[in-house]
Each structure stands twice: as structure tokens, then as C-alpha cells.
Amino acid sequence: MTTTAPSRPSLTERLSGISGEVVKFGIVGLIGVVVNFGVSNAVLHLTGWAPVRCSVIGTAVAIAANYLGYRYWVYRDSDAASRRREITLFLIFSGIGMLIENGTVWFSTYTLGLHGTLAYNVSKAVGTGLGTLFRFFSYRTWVFKAIPEVAKPEEAALPRPQLGTEGQAGRAAHAGQPAAGGHVPAPAPAERVAAR
Fold first, then answer.
1. I need a labelling partner for 70 at 20 to 30 A (CA). Which of 63, 80, 121, 167 fits?
2. What was the pLDDT predicted at 27?
3. Distance between CA 121 and CA 116 in Å, rounded?
């Protein structure tokens, strides 16, 4: 009996399959960026706090908004059996993304000495881009794992009987056992000749 292993999809098939995910991830991410920049700029101008603190607050609010979008839209078909594990990993990777994003704000403010709204937003934009790349690959790889696909009945590799139903009934008759219907079938013509 030979079985054929399922063929791996080509690179173009994998890229076309991921393109829809990238678009959805981008839409949720864009909403998160608007929330992030809106909240952080509002806190910066209303409170006068340090730029990094304002950026962290904006990022934290955006992370909460993004989780809802990722969980219930982008990765809604992912395995949610272990929600605690998912949220823990999401927070860990989001925290790393937050460090990447706000590290650029810190670097431009305290190392390069760039101050002002334009410098703040440019450094935040660069950090957001780098953090988003990290988040995309970490979320899809470790956080929102896909549910393992179950083979469809028509695609499942089933063993093929060698002689069909008659062959199975014939083998049952040779063993002295009744076939599925409870009776021993008469031997096939070729078997009668061999019996003589």
C-alpha cells in the first residue's frame, strides 16, 4: 500500500495566504497607531510630562485596543484553548515591542537631544514601525497559533482494499468465519476449479 504525503504549498501560495492576514494586521495596527499617537500627544501636551512617559502611556492604551482587534478579527480562528497563555505571551511580546518603540523616543530625546513635537513624533513613528514588525512575526508565530487543520474526508488517506468487498467475504469464508451478513458465501468460480 502506498500513501502520498501532502505536498507543501509553494512560496507564492504561502505568500498569497499570508497577504490577507497582513492586510488585516495592518488595519488593526493602523487603528492602534492612531490611538497611540492620539493618546500620547494628548498626554504630552496636557500634562507636560516627559516624552518617554507619555509615549509609554499611549503605547499601553494602543496595546489594549490592538489585542481586541487581533483576538476577535485577525486571529479569530486561532486556538483559544489556552487563553491565559495567549494573553501572557501577548503581553510579553507587546512589552518588548513597547521597549523597541519607546527606546527610539528615549534615544532621540536624551541621546540626540532632539526636542519638540516634530522630533517626538518622528522618533515615535520610527519606533512604531520597528515595533510593529517585531509584533507581527511574534504574534503570528507564538501568540495566536492556528488551530491544527483536520484532514477533510475526501483528502484523508484511507487504505484501499485489495479485492473489494467480495475479496473480504472470500477471505472470511476461507477462514471458516461468516461474512458481515452472517452467512458464508459460496466460493467464486475460480476457487471452485482450484478446489477440484
1. 121
2. 93
3. 9
SS (H, E, C) 160-172: CCCCHHHHHHHHH
Distance from C-alpha of 21 to C-alpha of 132, rounded to nearest angstrom: 14
Neighbours of 32 (CB within 10 A): 24
Residue corresponding to grid cell 484532514? 151
Spatial CA neighbour of 94 closest among 102, 106, 83: 102
Residue entry with cell 509615549: 55
pLDDT digits (tens, 9 = 90+) for 115-157: 999 999 999 999 999 998 998 889 888 888 765 555 455 554 5
Please state whether the predicted TM-score (pTM) of the whole model is above 0.70: no
In eight-state DSSP terms, residue 78 is B
Percent helix, strand, coil in the chain, to 5, is 70, 0, 30
CA separation for the pair 54, 123 (Å, rounded): 13
Phi-psi map region of 2: left, alpha, beta (phi>0 left; psi -120 to 50 alpha) = beta
Contact 124, 104 (CB under 8 A): yes
Region 56-67: what's the mean pLDDT? 94
d(CA 187, CA 134): 70
b/e 53-88 (16+ beta carbons within 10 angstroms → b): ebbbbbbebbbebbbebbbeebbeebeeeeeeebee
Q: Which amino acid is at 165?
A: T
Which three cell numbers, joined as nine digits, stand for 184? 458464508
Most confident of 7-16, 74-83, 85-94: 85-94
